[in-house]
Design a protein that fits this description.
Layout: E1 50-54, E2 57-61, E3 72-81, E4 85-95, E5 99-100, E6 103-106, E7 110-113, E8 116-119, E9 125-126, E10 140-141, E11 146-148, E12 155-164, E13 173-186, E14 195-200, E15 214-217, E16 222-223, E17 229-234, E18 242-246, E19 249-252, E20 262-272, E21 280-286, E22 292-299, E23 307-311, E24 317-323, E25 330-341, E26 350-363, E27 368-369, E28 374-375, E29 377-382, E30 391-395, E31 398-401, E32 413-421, E33 429-437, E34 443-450, E35 462-471, E36 474-483, E37 506-515, E38 526-541, E39 546-547, E40 557-562, E41 569-577, E42 610-619, E43 622-623, E44 628-640, E45 643-659, E46 665-671, E47 684-694, E48 697-707, E49 712-718, E50 722-723, E51 728-737, E52 743-752, E53 758-768, E54 777-786, E55 794-803, E56 813-826
Parallel strand pairs: 2-17, 18-28, 19-29, 31-40, 50-56
Antiparallel strand pairs: 1-3, 3-13, 4-12, 4-15, 5-13, 6-7, 8-9, 8-13, 10-12, 11-12, 14-17, 15-16, 18-20, 20-25, 21-24, 21-26, 22-25, 23-24, 26-27, 26-29, 30-32, 32-37, 33-36, 33-38, 34-37, 35-36, 38-39, 38-40, 41-42, 42-43, 42-46, 44-45, 44-47, 47-48, 49-51, 51-54, 52-53, 52-55, 55-56
Length: 829
């Protein structure tokens, strides 16, 4: 059956406008090619057997910037049949001056299209098939799609088909199935006011006898009904092109002298639609001639081949006129300008310069083209920061443990500080990171604590972290310390000071080490050495930029240790306490808080706590087993002018003997007394003496410990005496602790009015401790209580308590409650 021609063609009656999907450029391969899903968008034609193209309308307009030369789209050839089929074929023709398909030349077969594929059931393209239309039992014989170039002087045509092999048949496809996918490329855009039109035509015939588009039925009949797709490309005003200075921003920081540095900027048209048929553009680029020196201007004469005039006769201005004979599109460079930075300031002065585009105009053959957006460039040149670069140091830079006497130092601890030095505020530092190398065969990291420096500049606190690591660097401590920004993520303060100011130096971290190995040698000499090496130092400003570090001034530390000699007879007494469950009892306090070492003090013991005492007995560092050690505990003592003086109620609490085990260690435990009358008279310093007879020679060691409340409340004050109802009372509590170790403390304040009504309470959690032996570590805490409207007027009392935690969580009191009578007065009016 032949299609009749009306004015040369009869076109599909079921055509409608649909969106065209942009398809990626595909490469010919035997592997199926991936396409977007292309379901049947229109109902199939009413014929029982037919072929057609989807979409049935392709409408492009220059008003959409993607529709221009080089734009690619694909169409799908469909077929339907109510009978079994042997194969199919189509000849698809199109105007060669409007569209193109990609192809290559084969000397034997001519031009082969590499943008035509069989369409598989999943919508992907394949060079081997079978297509969705022919899917069934058996295989099809693939062919290479060919292209006939300008066969009639106007059109190109694609010839493609598919057939079953070995007598197989394709099943009926009454609802329609996909045969092939064809990708087209736009090679022409319409002139102004013009609409380009074509048919993607599979219904045409080569002559009046032999149709070239058909479905080959199992009945050996060629069925010829076919429908085409209408293609239009209409000119409408495309989006306006832009003009920009590229890059549109540059930043030159304050850490480098930039005078004499050159940089290059390009002025270009952006997103120029070919449909504008632009002929010329002109503009003036302005710049600050006092800060920037013009070095060179070059033009893109390849694009602007008619004229390219550049005028630099006026200082600070570059006037440009560019004209072309070509149909330019996309991003098109016009001029490239090189500047030299000639006048960098001194920080904190900052120059923000603009490379502006003025007097901009663009034309086609008949009218002016609006240029939008116009994007200038911003050049930021920070003044040179002529201050010293900061560095870091290990302090003290030299640690020497032991002495020429050869005493045992194993288990002893020491601290080093890592400091930042000569930090000027102009660096705007907010964070520090470093790594510290050490020898883990000699030393063990006990604790890493934050130093006080950055907290001076941290109204919102600091973030501190540390890790003991062993990786490809070797054993080291990694430390980070950061000033926290405000809730909006902005830094209100930065670290540092004017040069020579009191806050230009400070401690970032405090690291405690323990000696885990000591060489034994006689006579004693320094045998163990190691380095505390700082590396990977990073200092960061509030923008996240790195601050340069003066590595020439970085000070590392050294560790040296005397060997231990044949120390002969030796005893060391040390211990610990349960302290309400916060101590490691029955283990001793960790060194040095247990009194490890000769004549070293032990940390605080709280009232009624259980105490454990150990004694190491050695001869030339070798444990002495099965020896009876005598322990004596006596006290209390007062600490007066650096001396321990027995009190009038001084007495010997106990004498006890314990035998050393296989490790040469003897141990006793006991609980401290708390008598019925005046129990606090026992608070103070207590002395422990341990003695042992080693081969007719008695050796001894002593330690002292404080028996005391964990916390003493010294004073309670308020911000004023008279308060009105609904005002807030600010209560300041001054306290101190003899504890060398740190403990949690919960301070509670309660106000009772003149009629003993509790009108308010406040809580504050703090950490107490950190004292040196026989001294207080003092602190203050502030609590706030609102005077309720219903409180009775008159005098009111304040009650202050200190607990380890909330009593509902099992907490207990660290110190007796303090009551300040008539502490405030609530006014009646």
């Amino acid at each position: 059956m032949k299609v009749e021609k009306g004015e040369g063609k009869m076109k599909s009656v079921f055509k409608r406008l649909i969106a065209i999907a942009v398809v990626a450029v595909l490469m010919l391969s035997a592997v199926p090619l991936s396409f977007s899903e292309n379901p049947l968008p229109n109902p199939p034609p009413p014929d029982d057997i037919a072929m057609w193209i989807e979409p049935t309308e392709i409408s492009l307009t220059t008003a959409e910037p993607q529709y221009t030369i080089g734009y690619k789209f694909n169409v799908t050839v469909w077929g339907k049949s109510n009978i079994e089929t042997k194969g199919w074929q189509f000849w698809l023709r199109f105007r060669a001056d409007l569209l193109n398909v990609s192809y290559y030349y084969d000397p034997e077969k001519g031009y082969i299209a590499d943008s035509v594929w069989y369409c598989l059931p999943d919508g992907t393209g394949s060079t081997t098939g079978p297509s969705e239309f022919m899917t069934g039992a058996g295989m099809t014989m693939p062919v290479k799609p060919s292209v006939k170039i300008l066969y009639d002087g106007v059109h190109n045509r694609i010839e493609f088909g598919e057939a079953w092999t070995m007598g197989a048949y394709g099943p009926p496809q009454p609802s329609g199935a996909r045969m092939a996918i064809v990708e087209f490329e736009v090679i022409k855009v319409p002139d102004k006011g013009q609409t380009l039109e074509d048919w993607l035509d599979i219904s045409w015939v080569a002559n009046d006898v032999d149709d070239k588009t058909y479905i080959f039925g199992a009945d050996d009949v060629h069925y010829h009904i076919a429908y085409d797709t209408h293609y239009t490309f209409e000119w409408s005003p495309p989006p306006s092109p832009g003009l920009m200075v590229d890059p549109s921003s540059r930043f030159f920081d304050r850490y480098t002298v930039w005078n004499g540095t050159t940089f290059t900027e390009t002025v270009k048209l952006t997103d120029l639609a070919a449909a504008w048929f632009l002929t010329n553009v002109s503009f003036t680029l302005t710049y600050d001639a006092a800060e920037l020196e013009l070095v060179d201007v070059t033009g893109n004469t390849a694009a602007w081949d008619v004229a390219l005039d550049i005028d630099t006769s006026v200082a600070g201005e570059i006037a440009v006129y560019a004209e072309t004979s070509q149909d330019l599109s996309g991003d098109v460079d016009i001029i490239t300008v090189t500047f030299n930075i000639s006048d960098q300031e001194i920080y904190p002065d900052v120059d923000v310069l603009t490379l502006d585009l003025v007097n901009v105009s663009a034309y086609d053959h008949t009218l002016e083209i609006t240029v939008d957006p116009i994007v200038p460039a911003t050049i930021t040149i920070e003044g040179y920061l002529a201050v010293a670069m900061p560095w870091m140091e290990v302090k003290p830079s030299e640690i020497i443990m032991g002495s020429e006497h050869g005493e045992c130092i194993k288990g002893q601890t020491f601290q080093i500080e890592v400091t930042i030095n000569r930090l000027h505020f102009a660096w705007k530092l907010v964070g520090v990171e470093f790594r510290l190398m050490y020898d883990d065969s000699l030393l063990e990291v006990v604790k890493v604590e934050e130093g006080p420096y950055l907290s001076n500049f941290a109204p919102y606190g600091t973030w501190f972290c540390s890790y003991v690591e062993e990786d490809y660097y070797g054993p080291h401590v990694l430390v980070g310390n950061l000033i926290l920004p405000n809730p909006e993520g902005e830094w209100e303060t930065v670290a540092g000071d004017e040069e020579g100011g009191p806050l230009e130096n400070g401690t970032i971290a405090i690291i405690t080490f323990k000696v885990i190995r000591q060489t034994v040698k006689f006579p004693p000499e320094i045998t163990d050495t190691a380095e505390f090496g700082l590396f990977n130092i990073r200092m960061v400003d509030y923008t996240g930029s790195l601050i340069p570090v003066d590595y020439s001034k970085v000070v590392n530390g050294t560790y040296q240790a005397w060997s231990g000699s044949q120390l002969g007879r030796f005893i060391d007494v040390y211990g610990g306490a349960s302290n309400g469950g916060y101590g490691p009892f029955p283990d001793p306090f960790p060194a040095p808080y247990g009194g490890q070492g000769l004549n070293k003090p032990m940390d605080l013991v709280i009232p009624q706590s259980e105490v454990v005492l150990y004694a190491d007995v050695l001869y030339n560092y070798w444990p002495v087993q099965q020896k009876d050690v005598c322990f004596e505990v006596e006290g209390p003592y007062d600490h007066i002018n650096g001396e321990l003086v027995p009190r009038p109620n001084h007495f010997v609490l106990l004498k006890e003997t314990a035998r050393t085990d296989e490790n040469g260690v003897a141990k006793i435990t006991f609980a401290m007394p708390w008598p019925c009358e005046d129990p606090e008279s026992l608070l103070g310093v207590w002395k422990v003496t341990a003695t042992v007879n080693i081969r007719d020679v008695v050796v001894n060691d002593t330690l002292y410990f404080y028996y005391d409340y964990l916390v003493h409340i010294f004073d309670v004050t308020t911000d004023k005496f008279y308060y009105k109802h609904c005002e807030t009372v600010e209560i300041t509590v001054e306290y101190g602790s003899h504890s060398m170790q740190e403990y949690p403390a919960l301070f509670a304040a309660v106000i009772k009015d003149e009629l003993n009504v509790a009108i308010g309470m406040d809580l504050a959690y703090v950490t107490v401790g950190g004292a040196e032996f026989c001294t207080f570590a003092n602190g203050t805490v502030t609590l706030s209580i609102h005077v309720e409207k219903w409180a009775f007027a008159g005098y009111a009392d304040i009650y202050i308590g200190c607990y380890d935690k909330d009593p509902t969580e099992g907490g207990f009191a660290w110190y007796p409650e303090v009551v300040v009578e008539d502490a405030i007065y609530i006014e009646p009016l």
